[in-house]
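I am still getting used to backbone structure tokens and would like to learn alongside you. To get us started, please write out a protein record for me. Start from the sequence, derive the backbone structure tokens from it, and show both lines together. Once you have written the record down, we can walk along the chain together:
***
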Amino acid sequence: MKKSLLLLLCCIGCAFGSWAQNATLTGRITDEDNVPLFKIPVEETGTDNVAFTDSSGQYSISIPAGKKISFRIAFLGFEPEAFSVKATEGAALTRDIVMKRYYNNMLGEVEVKDNQTRHEAGNVVVNLENVDLNPGPVGGVEGLLKTLVGSNNELTSQYTVRGGNFDENLVYVNDFEIYRPFLVRSGQQEGLSFVNSDLTAGVNFSVGGFQSKYGDKMSSVLDVTYKRPKKFAGSVMLSLLGLQAHVEGATRNKKLTYLLGVRQKSNQYLLQSQPTKGQYNPSFTDIQGLINYRFSDRWELELIGNYARNRFSFQPEESVAAFGFVNEAYKLRTVFQGNERDQFDSRFAGLSLSFRPTKKSKIKLLASGFQTNEHETYDIYGEYAFYALEADLGKPDFGQEKYSLGTGVIHDFARNYLTANVGTVALRGTHDLDKHYLLWGLDATYVNVEDKLLEWQRRDSAGFSQPFDTSAIRMAKTYRANNDLDYTRFSAFLQDNILLSDIMTLTVGVRANYTALNKELIISPRVQYSLKPKWNRDVVFRLSTGLYAQPPFYREMRDMEGNLNTELKAQKSYHAAAGLDYNFKMWGNRPFKVTAEVYYKQLWDLVPYEYDNVRIRYYANNNGKGYAYGGEVRLFGDLVKDAESWVSVGYLKTDNAILDPATGTYSQYFPRPTDQRVNFGMFFSDYLPRNKNFKMFLNLMYATGLPFSPPDKGLDPAYQLRIPDYKRVDIGFSALLIDGTKKNRPAFSFFSAFKSVWLSAEVFNLLGIQNTLSYQWIQDYTSNRLYAVPNRLTARLINVKLAAKF
């Protein structure tokens, strides 16, 4: 009996001793308006110990006693917070946290009672953590987006979403709408996109069904938030494709913050792998700055500026293209004279003034200006010889030139000059009414364009110009125009984000747009609904529907000959989408997310167009109608522990029909130029099992081929063909040379100022696949048969990159 009692007392003592070795940390997490934040993770650094806040913002977590414990709180839309505590045995500590929002104010991330982005239809998760180490020729934010939505050209930062072309996408930076050059026709000329990943804090990417607060386009919204720094920091990245650097900082009282980024890119190394050999001299420079000053809790001023200087010089020498099939192969050899010189200079400046009359209201005045000066000049004379190749495997001259199919000349000439000015004044407002969050806005935009177009192509085969005319020399193509355009556009929106209950939200809104040029008024209502059932599983269901219109910009108004149609109406569409967002954990408590969505679009008053490399050339008539439908499934998570990866699979079908003005009837439906049926993208990261300082990053993309057609047959359903499927793999290996988190570094070391230094070796197009971008059409002189000669994209290349942060 005594032994049993003694044993019981020992067990009780051990239990109390074990309990006494722990302590409890509690607290409340709110935003800057003292609104409690729900399901915010409070994570003990380096462990699986985590607690989540309840609906009142309260959390409680058990921690070890007697040692210093570090915590990190990170949540989408807020600046990360970190703190440390040290507790004695059995102590109960309290730590309240106020989370600070990123100050772009997208004026829509307003439902602070839950993770708002999960309730918005069409939103795609974009994690910027490894953006600098992501392998690929484009890089940056757009490089990540193209993995998620699909692409068929690694030389451009342009992307297409759900059957829409790049002109149908909206891009915002800190609430300012961003424009791009007009005349760029190829990825070689394109240069840098506006979005600077070094300055970026967050990305909100909606691929359809977006809210009324966003502008009047038909496909997607890329809403970028630039950083609000707390202290001095910076970064430098060098590679064989160029360099980029940035600095950021804040004054001691945090009222003044600044960002400054510089980028220099040269694709010369990349373009050397193209089939057309010659002297490539591209030079693209971009300088961006952002200054933010908070006068008080009520008043805030922000200034953003950008200057982009793009130069492209090209002197082609020779190209050799072999194509066809095993039993029917051809070769085109071209020798060039002449050169191309292009310059695209753009400037952008934006000023915003924010005022908070109360803690639950905000008014923001914005003014911005964009100017672009563009020169496209080339005079290139190419003499070609066209051969049939020996296709008999049994003959010794297999693959050699068998006989000539023709010789000829293609002479391309252009002197194109364009100047455009876009000025915008806007007013935004938000009002938090507890279960209602109202947003409204007014915009006035002035557009001025001066365009001088002179462009022609002469073709000669066997001494005869094409098309052949016995009485005159005729050009294959001739464009000549002098266009001056001035007009003003007005828009307004009203939106209400309604918290129906703790599981349901409803967003209703309407946009109005009036263009003075064609005197067209457009009303676009939009609705989104989300449901988060009280299940054990963390699932959000989403529905969205609405009308979307795209008033014509200058590019849509100019037809194939360069003539303007100022009576052109807006393209219009109806969207319906349904999807879900599911967060879960598996494989040792690793976080994962699955998003899935199906959609349908009805399109009318379409303006048909064709692709000229990356330039979109419109027919400038509202004589099209069409549809698009499909679905997407994306998985995000740690396929390898502590190494995020994602997989995206999408299906799309989009067709259009063209109105015949003579008969008043529509043609049969045929694929639109963006009808890319299947897209598969994968980003995968891994590291050595015993050393996380050595990592691997892999980008894999597959997309079925896009439609194309012979010259002057773009709107004929009988002549629709398909480019071969696009397949590409880029891989990168990175080594962490300097780790700023190590505590045993000498304080006097020169490298102590660096947070991290990474050295990367990348292999572009690892499998060496010859992807086709477009076709050049050649006619032989014996049968007048047209041959489609493929224009290939880049071959396999190795890139070296050094990225440092301080």
